[in-house]
Amino acid sequence: MTESVKLIYGDKEYQLPVIMGSEKEKAIDISKLRQKTGLITLDAGFANTGSCTSSITFMDGEKGILRYRGIPVEQLAEKSTFAETAYLLIHGRLPRRKDLTDFSVLLNDNSLVHEDMRAFYESYPRSSHPMGILSSMVNALRSFYPELHNLQEEINMTVTRLLSKVRTLAAMSYKISRGHKVVYPRPDLTYCANFLNMMFATPVRPYEIDPDVVKALNVFWILHADHEQNCSTSAVRVVGSARVNLYAAISAGIAALWGPLHGGANQAVVEMLTEIVENKNMKQMIERAKDKNDSFRLMGFGHRVYKTYDPRMKIMKKMCDTLLEKLNITDPLLDAAIELEQIALNDDYFIEHNLYPNVDFYSGIVLRTIGIPTNMFTVMFAIGRLPGWIAQWKESIDDPNWKLSRPRQIYTGPKENRYVPIEER
Ligand code: ACO
Fold it and tell me: H helices within 116-190, ranges in order?
């Protein structure tokens, strides 16, 4: 029997249907609420609001579960590659061998970016943040790759171009910011190895591709590949709901991800740990994070959905340990992170607020080890999140219940007022 919720308002009773997902999550369907009752709902930060039904990613914040298309992220991190996981998210199933080969060939064939785009980089001030540049570059892709007439072909080509060219754009931006020669993608390299080569090869020193580093990058990107209706994904869906092109929707997602409360946290964590190591002020940082009158927060801690360990963080920490050991590197930031985690986890404030380390807590240390500069950490997150944004956008445009995103509000300003001519004010 279908469940419903009874709403009593005034002297009337309303039945609101309850929708149930495949993992038994339940939602009250309020789509007819205003029409029937004249009421709307208010939910700051959408903490209790589902914006869609989705078959892409499942997460359980109480149990610390994350699955893409039903497959636990732990299994994907151990056995899959980023390209394969991207295929899974976008096409809804694991690729057969031929599918994966065709997909890789397509990504390789579309990995170059228009040479004229290089000129844009030269015009940005050297101090520009790479996330701002990436967001505008992705938007600019539409001008360089105009819309194709066949809709299906247009979608397939845009998806392929984004997955392949954003990686090239990111590496290109790094090279140009350093005044170095741009390295072009190589068709003989896998997705992750290609990116590393474009970042770190120079005309005087070829980049030695280390399989451990390639594996670490695959895992890093798999862990970031999707996370259901987070801030940037919601931005992609909301902007996409106006039926803008996919480049513009992804550009909006990149802008949202930039924020320090979202993807920008990976950069903020490393900056915080660096300050702790340099100024030996861990205790003061923790006290500041607990102080209600101080806006400072312990970066890399807390999550809107996870009220236990973020499962991605556990994998990231393990990978961080393995990578540093294999490369024989010691990083004082890792020691500081481990100590900070232990102190916070035993502190009443963090226990009572259910604050655990999130994916960003150790990810910056992995990226540092690979050689990625701090201001590019969030760009790395953005490349990883692309398959998720694309899959969510595709799902939203194919949804038969699709609607333009347009929330309502409760107005609290002045009542109707007379315009006062300037000489009477
Ligand atoms: N340090 C100290 N206190 C915190 C922290 C933190 N990192 N995070 C939450 N709190 C406290 C808040 O002060 C608040 O306390 P109060 O109830 O006593 O007023 C309580 O916990 C609830 O916090 P909210 O901000 O309401 O929780 P919300 O779900 O909105 O926040 C968020 C989630 C934004 C991630 C928050 O935990 C935070 O700012 N963390 C630091 C930034 C960060 O690491 N972001 C990355 C998140 S993962 C990602 O996006 C990839």
Answer: 117-123, 130-144, 151-177
Where would I find the beta strands (DSSP E) of 33-143? Answer: 57-60, 65-68, 71-72
| Residue with CA closest to ligand 1 atom 36 | 302
- Determine the distance separating the centroid of ligand 1 and the alpha carbon of 137, expressed in angstroms: 31
Say yes or no to pLDDT of 57 above 80. Answer: yes
**Which residue, 111, 127, 213, is CA-closest to 166?**
111
Are residues 260 and 353 in contact, defined by beta-carbon separation less than 8 angstroms? no
Asked if 184 and 145 touch (Cβ cutoff 8 Å), the reply is no
Q: How far away, in angstroms, is 345 Cα from ligand 1 center? A: 15
Nearest CA to ligand 1 atom 32: 303
The 26-28 sheet, strands edge to edge: 4-9, 12-20, 26-28
Q: What residue type is assigned to position 173 of the chain?
A: S
* Protein residues whose CB sits closer than 6 Å to any atom of ligand 1: 45, 261-263, 265, 289, 297-304, 353, 355, 358-360
303 is an active site residue: yes
Alpha helices in 280-331 (DSSP H): 282-290, 311-326
Q: Cβ atoms within 10 A of the Cβ of 190, count?
A: 17
Q: Which of 295, 303, 363 to mutate to test the pocket of ligand 1 (most atoms within 8 A of CB)?
A: 303
pLDDT in tens, 110-168: 999 999 998 898 889 888 899 999 999 999 999 999 888 898 999 999 999 999 999 99
Phi and psi at residue 4, in whole multiples of 5°?
A: -145, 165
Burial 158-181 (b: 16+ CB within 10 A, else e): bbbbbbbbbbbbbbbbbbbbeeee
**Euclidean distance between CA atoms 276 and 286, whole angstroms:** 10
* Active-site hit among 226, 262, 303, 310: 303
State the pTM of this model.
0.95
Residues forming beta bridges with residue 6, ordered by sequence position: 15
- Domains of the chain (ranges; CATH) run 4-60 (2.20.28), 80-401 (1.10.580.10)
User: Tell me, what's the pLDDT at 1?
Assistant: 67
- Whose tokens are 């939602």? That residue is 27
Q: Which of 224, 291, 352, 353 to mutate to test the pocket of ligand 1 (most atoms within 8 A of CB)?
A: 353
Q: What is the pLDDT of residue 264?
A: 92
Write the pLDDT tens digit of every residue in 83-115: 999 999 999 999 999 999 999 999 999 999 999
Is 360 one of the catalytic residues?
A: yes
